[in-house]
Amino acid sequence: MSIERRLLESTAAGFSQLDRRSRDIFRRIVDGYLSTGEPLGSRNISRLLSVSLSPASVRNVMADLEALGLIYAPHVSAGRLPTELGLRFFVDAMLEIGDLSPEDRTAIERQVTGASHQRSMEEILTDASAMLSGLSRGAGVVVASKQDPAIKHIEFVPLEPGRALAVLVGEDGSVENRLLPLPPGLPPSALVEASNFLNGRMRGRTLAEARAAIQDALASAERELNELSARVVEAGLAGWGGGGGDHPRQLIVRGQANLLEDLKALEDLERVRLLLDDLEGKKDVIELLGRAEDADGVRIFIGSENKLFSLSGSSMIAAPFRDGDKKIVGVLGVIGPTRLNYARIVPMVDYTARVVGRMLGQPQGG
């Protein structure tokens, strides 16, 4: 068992022994932080409590909470703020998640579904990311496997002896190019023959859909293709398909500018600068979002619980979404400061993931 896990369990045991008054004071401190980002002092807390309690008694409770590692004093004479450990326990044990308002549901539906259902997957995901950013005032993020478009045309263009450019045009207007090694002694007619062979079998299909059919056809294609042309076809399939490996991942981030709003101190500016640097490191963001694919629903990552946010002290709320076959194909979420409005953003992310999944289950067009 890791040191972090033992710390969480020992703190949980201590927290479970706190009475209702201590829990109430802890909640007030967390709520104040999530609302304003400011520390809350004993005098203010005593005014907020439903039962009469002197500031001195509040300070005694705060000392117990501090000993458990749930709160800390940012300055000697300041009030208290929750630690990352305190936020984690608040989220896991005390967070009350309500349902989305009808206005939020309507906004999500309108922006994700759009005026027309005939949109590409990337357009749907970009709209979802922008919508999450707008409603949360954080950065909206989406990571997904790149989808194969239906193929409109394929062509092999000779470049120099031993190499050609394979050009694949999708029905959505996308164009992909791959450099291709050519068999020695290949005549120009073989490239034309290979293009014709593939166009007759790939048009209107995705690369994944066409792969098996073409490979089966190659076994009995002696009358249509000579040996060299068949080798060009095989090389083209391998070049586009990545040799059968995983689909590459695409990252969509919208609303980074939101992270620059409501800064209260130079430390906040430095934190956001570090977070923006993190978002530029796409590999780490994709890796972190990928961890949410193992979850049945929403996952929350807080501060230094993960290496990506160890310096910027940020949080991410993320949920996986599925395609029409109920297969997880990506993750979407919100990244922002640790004082995100978890109670509002968690159901927002969850509902958006379900709407996106419903959209991906419909036929997509260009």
How would you characterize this protein structure?
It is built from 13 helices and 10 strands. The strands form 3 sheets. Strands 7-3-10-9-8 form a 5-stranded antiparallel sheet, with helices on both faces. The chain has 366 residues and is an alpha+beta fold. The chain folds into 3 domains: 3-94, Winged helix-like DNA-binding domain superfamily/Winged helix DNA-binding domain (Arc Repressor Mutant, subunit A); 102-147 and 249-360, 2-Layer Sandwich (Beta-Lactamase); 151-244, 2-Layer Sandwich (Enolase-like, domain 1). It has helices at 3-16, 20-36, 42-48, 55-67, 84-94, 102-113, 121-136, 188-202, 207-219, 227-241, 266-280, 282-291, 342-360, and strands at 71-72, 81-82, 139-145, 151-160, 163-170, 175-181, 249-254, 299-302, 314-322, 328-337. It is 48% helix and 18% strand.
Which key phrases capture this entry?
Enolase-like, domain 1, alpha+beta, 366 residues, five-stranded antiparallel beta sheet, 3 domains, 48% helix, 10 strands, Beta-Lactamase, Arc Repressor Mutant, subunit A
Give the SSE layout.
Elements: H1 3-16, H2 20-36, H3 42-48, H4 55-67, E1 71-72, E2 81-82, H5 84-94, H6 102-113, H7 121-136, E3 139-145, E4 151-160, E5 163-170, E6 175-181, H8 188-202, H9 207-219, H10 227-241, E7 249-254, H11 266-280, H12 282-291, E8 299-302, E9 314-322, E10 328-337, H13 342-360
Antiparallel strand pairs: 1-2, 3-7, 3-10, 4-5, 5-6, 8-9, 9-10
Helix pairs in contact: 2-4, 3-4, 6-7, 6-13, 7-13, 8-10, 9-10
